[in-house]
Amino acid sequence: MQQFRWYPIYVVYSKARQEFMEQQIDRYAAGNDPGIFDWAQNVGRNSESIRPDKESPESRHYETTILNLLNKIESNKVGGLLLESLAPGSKIYIHPLTERTRHSDCYKCTGLTTWWEMTLKQGGGRRIAFSPELVKSDQTDDVLVHELMHAYRGESKMRARRGIGLQYPDGEEFIAHYIENMYRSAKGRADLEFSYYRHYAHASQFGTKSSIYHHIVENEREIFAFRFFLDSDPLCANLAKKSWPAFNPFRDFQILHRLSLNSKLTGEYPMTMEQVREFWPSFFTAVGPNDY
Q1: d(Cα 263, Cα 205) in Å, to the nearest integer?
Q2: Which burial class, exposed, middle or buried, applies to 67 when counting CB atoms under 10 A from its CB (0-12, 13-18, 19+)?
Q3: What's residue 107's pLDDT?
Q4: How far is CA 122 from CA 47, 51, 98, in A?
Q5: What is the pLDDT of residue 201?
Q6: What is the per-residue pLDDT across 214-243, written as a single tens digit (0 to 9) for each?
Q7: Burial of 216 from C-beta contacts in 10 A (0-12 / 13-18 / 19+)
Q8: At a CB cut-off of 8 Å and minimum separation 6, what does 248 contact?
Q9: Is 135 exposed, middle or buried (0-12, 13-18, 19+ CB in 10 A)?
Q10: Is 165 left (phi over 0), alpha (psi -120 to 50) or beta?
Q11: How many CB atoms lie within 10 A of CB 152?
């Protein structure tokens, strides 16, 4: 296990231990003792995920790869600000994502974050299950930033659980997706991922700042979600003060908000200001975690 510099991030290669516990879970599931099965599923599985395997070329390669990705993230303005925002008293463990977890706990995902704090019996801390080989080589750091944002958000007392249309199952995926895009923009990339569930929102995987901003303006619930995070999340409020990166909807929020409101007043079916206030009060008031 290696800590990344002074940050509360620990990299641990535990693939063999995880796979062994998965085999044990299958064996216990076939037995008649629900107690031992429940322990293996909820305690043993999680505690073993942060116990390092015996050192090997595979473990050294994994730890070196993750540490290199974290160095790359730290050197990025958005990524560095995210790392600096992590609570110093917390612990975030990054360990391999097993094939079983990838297919049983999420549908062929490339990363999976347990954002809540594990119990002492489970080993404590938050977890990021991540295997770089499952991600396209030019997006490995992007995906890790997305998962780190989930881990960072685990500190928040205001979880954004409400979904946003068909594109986002909850507000947490919404904010992680946009932080990932801002990170990508800070790398100088103009091709940004259009939405989390891209096939619902856009015909192609990637869009530009202009096309994504246009999409935000046309979707008032995204405007409301941005307001919620600006008002409640310190990292988002901090990013709003930055002149970088080129794609920064927090910095540009007032413009996007005004354009979205104007689209209701002057669109194909124009509404009066009173009608807008009645239908979408969140254009004008503070937004809570269930109001966007």
Answers
A1: 26
A2: middle
A3: 76
A4: 5, 11, 18
A5: 59
A6: 999 999 999 999 999 999 999 999 999 999
A7: buried
A8: 182, 185, 239, 240, 242
A9: middle
A10: left
A11: 25
Residue pair 163/196 in contact (Cβ under 8 Å)? The answer is: no
Which residues, 6 or more positions from 34, have their beta carbon under 8 angstroms from its beta carbon?
none
How far does the chain reach from its first CA to its final CA, in angstroms?
41
- pLDDT number for residue 106: 82
- Residue-level pLDDT at 202: 64
- The CB-based long-range contact list for 259-267 (8 Å cut-off, 24+ gap) reads 259/217, 260/216, 260/217, 260/218, 260/220, 260/223, 263/217, 263/218, 264/220
Residue type, 213: Y
Q: In which residue are the tokens 């503070």 written?
A: 286
Contacts of 223 (CB under 8 A, 6+ apart): 216, 217, 256, 257, 260, 283
The pLDDT assigned to 41 comes to 86
Question: 92-95 and 126-130 as β-strands: parallel, antiparallel, unpaired?
Answer: parallel
Residues of the chain with pLDDT under 50: none
pLDDT at 200: 62
> Of the candidates 100, 175, 190, which has an alpha carbon nearest to the alpha carbon of residue 145?
175
pLDDT of residue 196: 79
178's CB contacts (< 8 A; 6+ apart) are: 249
Interatomic CA distance for residues 64 and 57, integer angstroms = 10
Cβ-contact 175, 229 below 8 angstroms: yes
